[in-house]
Design goal:
GO terms for molecular function: ATP binding; protein serine/threonine kinase activity. By secondary structure, the chain is α+β, with helices and mostly antiparallel strands. The chain is built from 11 helices and 14 strands. A 5-stranded antiparallel beta sheet has the order 3-4-5-7-6. A 3-stranded antiparallel beta sheet has the order 8-10-11. Strands 1-2 form a two-stranded antiparallel sheet. Strand 4 and strand 5 form a beta hairpin.
Amino acid sequence: MGQCASVASLRVPDSCVSVHEAAPCDEKMGSNFKLRTDADVEEVYRLGPALGHGGFSTVRLATHRETRCKFAAKVCCFVIIPLPPRGSSTNKYNCSRSVILREVDVIQRLEHPCIVKLHEWFVHGGKLYLIMDLLAGGELLDEVEEHGPLTERQARAVFLQLLLGVQHMHSMGIVHRDLKLENLLMERQGDLASVKIVDFGFAKKCSSSSEECLTTVCGTPEFMAPEVVRGSSKVRAMLEGSPAASDSFTPYNAACDLWSCGVILYMLLSGQAPFRSSSHPRLLRRILAGHFSMEGPAWKGISPEAKDLVAKLLVVDPHQRLTAAAALAHPWMKGSGRRGGAVGSALTVPVPRGGLLQLAKRLARAVSRRATLLTS
């Protein structure tokens, strides 16, 4: 469903914008995801100012001329996007034509309340326009950084939405590969019951969620599953301090998303990352070993049931890791735990003050964030 707001928010592979209060708008555009060929984008939408910039894309406010509903439009320079040279390897995520089309192909397959919606898209004047949901509440990461860890009740409500979205993706054979707090946005500021998954730049379609069809070592290191790190012989050699004659890959599957979910739950409950190091290689070694702790002041008062769910998601062996369905059936998700309780109350956090200055600071920080591609 479309929404109306004064300013829009959308996380894309390399940019994010936020925030103002949003309100529902009558759904007059229909629910089919489609390429519009019957009209140019500016015949249907009035494009407002740029709200965020990335390497190959810009996010602009888009107002539907008939309904006056406001959306976020991701604008990609479709024609001039360079393709990487054949056989090249890079440490930078190259947002090529094929990558953009893959992202469109993935996201238009997904229609779920916990996943950002692509309403329609246009190709016009050498550019591609993706008309997406408003997500005016900003990043979940901001709430954790500004207000500290969530209560178990709040964390459960957020995690329920994440797991439902992941379960739907995996049922469609789609693996996200870059789940993290920055890629969980709220429709309304401070409303923890309005979380959606965004940013499908690294997502890929497999024939099934159990198929080991993925080989690219990609994502954001702190949230990256061991099998993803371990997948590249070059990365393994780098961590072992030995040269690799050539790069080979050990494929992985959708279980990598559940590891990332475990990292997210750990952070929601404690306000800390489970794997931390100023050294990139040391961080990756800790992930490979699965070394993390749920001791110390940050975990005082956290229920054993919550810790048990975290531990069963942060399992190095992907075959022993919980699936989304199994995680949803875990006792903690049913409300068990010392700090548990029914989902539905106390699901808001204080709205930070600061107006446009706070908006500008959030936008500047969000646009500077990048996911990492370790091998091409």
